[in-house]
Amino acid sequence: MLFYGYNLCVMNTTSSSASRRVLLLTTAKTYRAQPFLEAAERLGLEVLKAIDMPGALAEFWNTPLGIDFADLEQATRAIVDLAYRQPFEAIVSVDDSGSLLAARASAALGLPHNSPDAAEAARNKHRMRTLLARGGVPVPDFKLFSTGDDPRQVAAQVEYPCVIKPLMLSGSRGVMRADDPDRFVAAVDRLKSLLLSLDPAPAPKSFLVERFIPGFEVALEGILDHGRLKVLALFDKPDPLDGPFFEETIYVTPSRLPHEVQSAIADCVASAAAALGLREGPMHAELRVNAAGPWIVEVAGRSIGGLCSRTLRFGSDASLEELILRQAFGLEIESLSRENRAGGVMMIPIPDTGLLRRVEGVPEAQAVPGIEEIQITAKLNYPIVPLPEGDSYLGFIFARGETPDQVEAALREAQRRLRFAIEPSIPLLAILPQV
Prior knowledge:
Number of helices: 13
Number of strands: 23
Largest sheet: 4 strands, parallel
Shape: globular
CATH architecture of the domain at 2-113: 3-Layer(aba) Sandwich
CATH class of the domain at 2-113: Alpha Beta
Distance between the termini: 64 Å
Helix content: 25-40%
Radius of gyration: 22 Å
C-alpha cells in the first residue's frame, strides 16, 4: 500500500520481531517523557525515542533519533526508515508537539491512530473551532485575523469582551482578553512580538479572536476507543480564569459539580471528539460552564500536560500513561475506575519576569497535611517568564485527601508557605555602551 509516498507493502510492524516496542515522540524540555518511560518499564515494553531536535544536535547529545517535528515529510520518512530497522507496534506522542507527526507516521505504517486530519484539527485552533461549529458543538463566535491586518481596523470589527489566541501554541500561551479597542490593539501587538520571537520569518501570522465566555472552567481527561469516549477524570478549576491572561493553577478531582452537569460536560466532549474525527487514544478537553451549559475551550488529542497526570491512579495503582500504552498495544485494561480518594495539583504560577535566585519554604509546605509531593521544576539562576509570553511554571504541588475541599485547602496552604526570590533581569541593550 502507499501512504505519503512510501511503499510499505512489505512492512509488518506487528511481527514478533517487534519485541513489544513503542516509539515515543518527545522533546528535550517536556515533563511528560519520564512517566511514559516508567509505565513502559512496568509493562515490559522496549522504548525507542524520537526527539524534536536537529540531527546534528542529536548526534552531539548522543540521541539515537533527532528529527524536526515541523518538517512532517522528512520526519515521517525518518520514522518509516527506523521502523524497517527496529520494528515497533505503536507510536505515542507525549504532548502536543508530536501529535500530528504521530498520526502521519502511524498512517504511513498502518498502525492504529487518529487520522492526520483529526490530529491537525486538534492542534489548530481555527480549524478546531470551524469543525466544532459545523458539528453543532457549543463554541463562542470566532473570526480569523492576521498580524498583517491593521489592528485598529480589526478592533472595530470584534465584540467585547473578546479573547485573542495564537493558532498553534498550547498551555494558554499568548492567550489574552481585551475589553475595549485600546486593550485589543495592545494585546495584538504583544502577541505579534511573541509570534515573531518564535518564528522570525516576516510573513504575517494568523490568530483567532473569539467572544469571551463567562462562567467557570473544568478539564476532562478521557480515552477514546473506536470513537467512544471513556471519561477518566473531571477536574474542577476553583480559581477564576477571567483574564486578562489565563494562567491555570489548581486542578481538583473528583468534581464537585452536580451529576447532571458532569453528564452534560461528558456529552459535550464526546460530541467534540466526533466533530473533529478523533477516535483513538488519550483526549484532554478544557471547557467553560455557565447557565447555557458547557462550552468547548480546547480539545487536544493527548493526555494532560506537565506533571499533572500524577494526580491520577487507576485500578491497582496504574498510571494514566500505563492506560495509554495498554490501549495502544491492545493489552487488557484492568480498570478505568479512579482511586477513591480525592486528588489535586497546583501549577505554581510565575509572578514576575527575572532570574530565579532562591526557593524557600519547601519543607514547611511539604509538612501541610495532605501534601504528597512538591516539585520545583524551574532552575535556579535561570530566567523565568510568566504568561502570556512564558510556557512553564515554577513547579507543581500534589495533594490527596478524603474530599476535594480538603485537597484544595492543602494546596493553597502549601503555596502560601513557599517563597520565591526573583531578581529582575536587565535587558542586554540597557548595559551596552551607546553608539
